[in-house]
Write a structure and sequence with these properties.
- By secondary structure, this protein is mainly beta.
- The protein has a single domain, classed as Immunoglobulin-like.
- It is 12% helix and 42% strand.
- It contains 2 helices and 10 strands, in the order ββββββββαββα.
- A hairpin with a 4-residue loop joins β5 and β6.
- The N terminus is likely disordered.
């Protein structure tokens, strides 16, 4: 497994461009400060990571009728065709759609192993898109709860 071992680059990883190597040692990247919140919504549930400025940075949402979990990255300045997700166990580049609200959304079936990897990643997972910095966020029970909502 490829690991970033260059100590001088570690502080930059949380803001590095999306063109970083396909495999990252996510365990060495400090996640942003933030708090996950969970809420039930019509036909599912949603977890939001809210940063220190009260901005939602990542959303994980479930639509029970379709059993689809959406990963939404906010603050994306322009359309990008993909969203890359890194965890301590699994990484993947997903097709994505851009919303006019500066949000990039990737959908997964509720049984996708990447969702388990996000839920059980060693304290953090990361996302990146073309034209946007990599964002490393803390793992949390709220993410697992949304995934489980879609599976039940």
């Amino acid at each position: 497994m490829f690991a970033f071992a260059v100590a001088s680059a570690l502080p930059l990883l949380s803001v590095a461009p999306a063109q970083v190597p396909a495999q990252i040692d996510v365990e060495t990247v400090q996640p942003i400060a933030g708090t996950w919140s969970y809420r039930a919504i019509a036909d599912g549930s949603e977890a939001d990571l809210i940063d220190a400025t009260a901005a939602v940075r990542v959303k994980i949402g479930c639509k029970r009728t379709t059993r689809v979990v959406s990963i939404t990255r906010t603050g994306i300045p322009a359309a990008a065709p993909t969203l890359t997700v890194w965890t301590s166990a699994l990484s993947r580049t997903l097709p994505a759609r851009f919303l006019g609200t500066k949000e990039l959304v990737a959908d997964l079936t509720a049984t996708d192993p990447l969702l388990d990897a996000m839920a059980f990643s060693r304290g953090r997972f990361a996302t990146a898109a073309s034209g946007a910095p990599m964002l490393t966020v803390p793992s949390a029970p709220e993410v697992t709860r949304v995934v489980e909502d879609c599976r039940s």
